[in-house]
Structure to design on (426 residues):
């Protein structure tokens, strides 16, 4: 009898110690994020995740960095292959692509059980991560695009840095005055505007503001057909490509210029204006600390037309396939804390998704961020459909056809509209 009781006690102890033993085992969590390839965002995220590992020695976070241009395509391949990372950082297009695919864990109950996040997350940003009432991710940052410009260049050209361009015509006029031979060697070495011309999906964020600013739209109201064959679309394509072809205010070789080249040229002072977001502020200042960096709301085509810019954000989701959902969620919570969001916003120049941190940024943060906050009033989202990445790729192709002289803006707009509608109907 005593032996039986002893055996029972041992079995009970063994069962009770199983959770503890498992908790002490090393758990690897895969973390997928395009911002790991960027600075300073990637540096901040790495530091925060390293702090989490210090607090949780049994957790090892495996970082999966992916270039911005490949972020959605590579993740799609992983999802289709049944290898969705435990934590995925998506942009708004990624949210539209992956939320309907049942690869993301519903987070409604997780958020509801967290008093801090339930109270502080900005509702409009949570809405962007919601499909049919189900929240599939926690918003990590808000984004918008503005006209970034070098105020020192403005002064040297006789332009008032406190009076940025307010129409497309003024933007061209400013760009022409900023395109100069600064060392008098007979060759232009400072260009008025930096734009992308390579066939990369991220060109869309630096283009749609022109379409909207001309009164155009990407899709019809029920999102079943493209409106990219409109007169407004033709005007937008013509303006964008003429910055290079006609006005000559863009550096040569535009069809090879990707996002990295654009921001590097601006930081180095090779270009005077470009279109970008708050996430690049810290990097530009680090690369060129003497620059008087300014920001302004992007101008519409003419007075009376709508001001508009592209926006969205970053969203942290947990894989529905993860074997460690609770730990993955805990990491998402950690990155979404007030302390980490403040660090991310203040040092990385991002617009936060927490109410308390947004208020702190306005009172204690960089004054330049106020200009980005103004732009939020005119910020629009691209249609939340899985085909938007494909449409953006078509846009990049058609713009390049115009750049190399194979199509006119009218032909490119007609082709873009037809191809986008065909894509929607596949």
């Amino acid at each position: 009898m005593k032996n039986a009781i002893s055996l029972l006690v041992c079995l009970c102890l063994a069962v009770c110690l199983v959770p503890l033993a498992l908790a002490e085992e090393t758990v690897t969590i895969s973390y997928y994020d395009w911002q790991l390839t960027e600075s300073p965002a990637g540096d901040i995220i790495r530091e925060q995740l390293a702090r989490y590992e210090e607090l949780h020695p049994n957790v090892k976070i495996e970082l999966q960095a992916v270039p911005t241009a490949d972020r959605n395509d590579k993740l799609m391949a992983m999802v289709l292959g049944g290898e969705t990372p435990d934590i995925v950082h998506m942009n708004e297009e990624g949210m539209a692509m992956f939320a309907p695919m049942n690869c993301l864990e519903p987070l409604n109950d997780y958020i509801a059980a967290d008093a801090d996040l339930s109270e502080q997350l900005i509702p409009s940003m949570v809405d962007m991560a919601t499909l049919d009432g189900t929240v599939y991710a926690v918003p990590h940052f808000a984004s918008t695009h503005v006209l970034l410009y070098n105020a020192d260049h403005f002064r040297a050209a006789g332009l008032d840095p406190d009076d940025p361009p307010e129409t497309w015509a003024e933007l061209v006029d400013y760009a022409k005055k900023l395109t100069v031979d600064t060392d008098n060697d007979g060759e232009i070495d400072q260009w008025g505007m930096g734009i992308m011309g390579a066939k990369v999906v991220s060109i869309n964020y630096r283009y749609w503001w022109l379409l909207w600013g001309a009164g155009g739209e990407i899709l019809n109201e029920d999102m079943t057909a493209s409106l990219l064959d409109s007169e407004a679309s033709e005007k937008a394509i013509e303006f964008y490509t003429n910055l290079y072809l006609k006005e000559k205010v863009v550096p040569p070789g535009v069809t090879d210029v990707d996002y990295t080249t654009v921001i590097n040229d601006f930081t180095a002072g090779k270009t005077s204006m470009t279109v970008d977001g708050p996430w690049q502020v810290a990097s530009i200042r680090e690369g060129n600390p003497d620059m008087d960096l300014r920001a302004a709301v992007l101008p519409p085509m003419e007075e009376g037309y709508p001001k508009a810019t592209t926006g969205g954000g970053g969203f942290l989701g947990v894989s529905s396939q993860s074997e460690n959902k609770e730990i993955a969620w805990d990491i998402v919570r950690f990155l979404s804390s007030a302390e980490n969001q403040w660090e991310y916003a203040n040092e990385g120049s991002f617009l936060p998704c927490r109410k308390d941190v947004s208020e702190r940024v306005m009172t204690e943060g960089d004054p330049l961020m106020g200009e980005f906050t103004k732009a939020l009033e005119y910020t629009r989202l691209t249609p939340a459909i899985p085909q938007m990445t494909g449409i953006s790729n078509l846009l990049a192709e058609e713009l390049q056809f115009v750049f190399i002289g194979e199509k006119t803006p009218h032909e490119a707009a007609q082709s873009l509209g037809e191809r986008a509608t065909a894509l929607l109907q596949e």
User: Anything to note?
Assistant: The radius of gyration is 24 Å.
